[in-house]
Amino acid sequence: MKLLTLLKDLPAHTLTGSPQVKISHLECDSRRVLPGSCYIALKGTQADGHEFIPEAIRRGACAVVAEMPCTKEARDAGVSWVEVNDSRLAVSLMGAAWNGHPSRHMTMIGVTGTNGKTTTAYIAHSLLKQSWLRAGLIGTIAYDNGEEITPSTHTTPGPLELEHLLKEMFENGCRGVSMEVSSHALDQERVAGINFNVGIFTNLTQDHLDYHHTMENYFQAKAKLFEQMAQDTRARRKPVAVINIDDAYGRRLAEMFSGRMAVKTYGSALGADFRMLVHHATAKGSEYELEYKGKSYLVRVPLIGKFNMYNSLAALAAVICAGIPVRDAIANLQNIPQVPGRLQLFTHPGGAQIFIDYAHTPDALENVCRTLKEICSRRLITVFGCGGDRDKGKRPLMGAVAARLSNACIVTSDNPRSEEPLSIISQITAGMPEGRYAIIPDRARAIATAIEQARLGDVVLIAGKGHENYQELSTGRIDFSDAKEVRRNMFIKEREEFPQA
User: Fold this and answer.
1) At which residues is N6-carboxylysine found (predicted)?
2) 464 annotated as a binding-site residue
């Protein structure tokens, strides 16, 4: 592909050298540059790709995209040089062009917000798949390219990987894609090359302030998805924003984009386009009454918790906006799968119920604890920690939530990364009354202790890591799965209580 074709969608840029040069690869890592590659220099948190331009040229790069003027070395080597204001924006747009703009050929649903992204994206994916047979999924747990499902590497992959994945989906016959869109991805322009048809905003609560610093910055990062959609003239269908107006930030977002693009609101608030009215839990999940366009529908969802009613309502609204008939979407909700690590239930041999959940923010932990209190006939035992090298401000808040809503708390390690586990734990317990918690830094032992203590009627919540099959320590990643630890300890417990088995 010629460089000129790749530059077609780029905003203002300066080209030095030939636009007709043929490009064999797009590459952001100088170590992987091959003869004929176009090297795109990105400024990262750990290193600046501009420092490796000479290496890329030595390895045979025939073109360079950078946030600086052409160098003498590049000019002497006959390298075409593209000076841009934002390399991250450039790589996203060029990645889309390189792969034939796959998002323009599918119905794209993007889900953003603090809590509920994974479950909402999973539900929307299931609904698309049930109606259209093949649909793509990109999110925290897995990628589905229409042919196979693989574990994910990031909630939202880098732009080159992302666009290649979308191309695979289109080639595999996917008509639509449901994907999580993280605030980091939006801030770093990873999805700038995607033409979204439906954007979902779930909610905004404290998280990632180690990166965004303020809630306003965090909100503005989320709003970029809808700004991008409002300015899009090439999407497959007219973009629609699906926004939760029971959330204060959601109401603000709806006001910001009303008049600039189609906005459909959801929630229990008066005036919501997709309004949830009467709702209650059932033995097999939840059900609620949906009011839409003057008609009422009974909606049943095989997931517990009011927050999952919101997740299902968001997904339902999105796929309806994407063209799936209302009654088909509602009927198919009953067939959605269990989302791994999201209120995932294990039945204890002694009669207790054990749940694994990804809840890792104060709001998410409160929602899960309140949901489990409703089905708990005896004690709620909560095992949780907080990740290292991440937002420290939420640690005492999570401790306060767990102490207030649980009958017993075990504070343990999550993914401590480079921080000392006991230091993280002390910041968590700063928000908890004395005598309301036990400290067991070893997560495996904490889980074992909770299961050992559980009795008939108890509910054990193991929060924070959900589907993850690793633990990040200062020495690197190790294999670790909450689900495996639960199964192992339940097997031990069963052998103790029923030795004849």
Assistant:
1) 222
2) yes
Flag whether 379 is marked binding: no
**Per the annotation, does 190 bind a ligand?**
yes
Annotated ligand binding at 118? The verdict is: yes
Residue 323 counted as an annotated binding residue: no
Domain of 11: which CATH number?
3.40.1390.10
382 is in an annotated binding site: no
Residue 361, marked binder: no
Task: Evaluate whether 318 touches 109 at the Cβ level (below 8 Å).
Answer: yes
475 marked ligand binding residue? no
The answer to the question of whether 103 is labelled as a binding residue is: no
Please indicate, yes or no, whether residues 470 and 359 belong to a single structural domain of this protein. Answer: yes
**SS3 of the chain: helix, strand, coil, percent, to 5:** 40, 25, 40
Evaluate whether 145 touches 169 at the Cβ level (below 8 Å): yes
Is 350 labelled a binding residue? no
Q: Is 385 annotated as a binding residue?
A: no
Per-residue pLDDT of the chain (501 residues; tens, 9 = 90+): 999 999 999 999 999 999 999 999 999 999 999 999 999 999 988 899 999 999 999 999 999 999 999 999 999 999 999 999 999 999 999 999 999 999 999 999 999 999 999 999 999 999 999 999 999 999 999 999 999 999 998 888 999 999 999 999 999 999 999 999 999 999 999 999 999 999 999 999 988 878 888 999 999 999 999 999 999 988 777 899 999 999 999 999 999 999 999 999 999 999 999 999 988 886 579 999 999 999 999 999 999 999 999 999 999 999 999 999 999 999 999 999 999 999 999 988 788 999 999 999 999 999 999 999 998 989 999 999 999 999 999 999 999 999 999 999 999 999 999 999 999 999 999 999 999 999 999 999 999 999 999 999 999 999 999 999 999 999 999 999 999 999 999 887 666 665 655
Claim to verify: residue 113 and residue 72 sit in the same structural domain = no
Confirm whether residue 119 is marked as ligand binding.
yes
Do 321 and 391 lie in a common domain?
A: no
The SS3 of residue 346 is: strand
- Known binding residue 114? Answer is yes
Sequence-distant (≥ 6) Cβ neighbours of residue 416 within 8 angstroms: 385, 387, 388, 424, 472, 473, 474
Give me the domain span that covers residue 434: 344-497
115 has binding-site annotation? yes
For residue 120, say whether it is annotated as part of any ligand binding site. no
| 282 has binding-site annotation | no
Rounded Cα distance between 212 and 220, Å, is 10
388: annotated binding-site residue?
Answer: no
Asked whether residue 239 is marked as a ligand-binding residue, the answer is: no
Count of domains forming the chain: 3
Q: Which of 50, 66, 96 is a domain's end point?
A: 96
**At 279, which CATH number?**
3.40.1190.10
Say if residue 258 carries a ligand binding annotation: no
- Exposure of 203 in the CB half-sphere (CA atoms within 13 A): 19
- Whether the Cβ atoms of residue 440 and residue 446 lie closer than 8 Å to each other: yes
Q: Which tokens sit at 146?
A: 């229409």
Q: Quick one: 140 and 168 in the same domain?
A: yes
